[in-house]
Amino acid sequence: VIGGAPFQAALTAAAPGGRVLLRDNLVYGFTPVLQAAAPTAAGGGEVVVAAINGARPVILAGGAITCDIGPGARLVIDGLVIAGHELVLPAAADNQPRELVLRHCTLVPGRTLLADGAPAQPGVASLRIEHPFARVVLEDCIVGMRADGADAEVTARGCIVDANAADAVAFEGLAAARPGAALVLEQCTVVGKVATR
Predict the structure, then answer these.
(1) Of the candidates 140, 122, 138, which has an alpha carbon nearest to the alpha carbon of residue 181?
(2) Does the pLDDT of residue 31 top 80, yes or no?
(3) N or C: which end of the chain has fewer CB within 10 A?
(4) Predicted local distance difference test score (pLDDT) of residue 38
(5) What is the mean pLDDT of residues 119-143?
């Protein structure tokens, strides 16, 4: 993918299992649905959406970006900046696990930045995990999170989890003041409060 135009068709085509590679540093102004279909007997089940080495594309979304991950499937997002709205892994009717992996991504805390670098919406999460059986892995990312679910697990390695202020909440459940999913932090910086199981 190159040129800054919406690339939903490429994402849909890769949904059974495949890669979508972004090859530039442009701003993509649209609200994608990131898809990874459930694996079948023929294979599949993993989708990678990534920037090539040396590129840092921005997805500037006008609404929530949905991660449509099928039962037992895995979605990897690597090297992207996501701004404007949150990334959401919604709940599903079944109780099968899904896996979401973010590597070298910035999900802009506060959703967008003002001219002086301050967040436009301080304390607003940029990642929402609504699926109760999700496994989420973050590696070398910047993010603000909400994660719910009795059996959900979130692991962050080398990340910045940022609520934009020390007295705001960096990680909690979907309801205010409710503990979020099980959380493992390894070599992370956390700005704000944490409420976790």
Answers:
(1) 138
(2) yes
(3) C
(4) 95
(5) 90
Q: What is the mean pLDDT of residues 152-168?
A: 92
**What's the whole-model pTM score?**
0.93
Buried b (16+ CB within 10 A) or exposed e, 90-102: eebeeeebbbbbb
Phi-psi region of 117 (alpha: psi -120 to 50; beta: other; left: phi over 0): left
pLDDT over threshold 60, residue 149: no
Q: How far is Cα 91 from Cα 77, in angstroms, rounded to an integer?
A: 19
The rounded mean pLDDT for the chain is 91
**What is the reported pLDDT for 4?**
85
- φ, ψ (nearest 5 deg) of residue 60: -105, 100
Spatial separation of the C-alpha atoms in residues 1 and 11, rounded to whole Å:
10
> What mean pLDDT is predicted for residues 9-21?
97
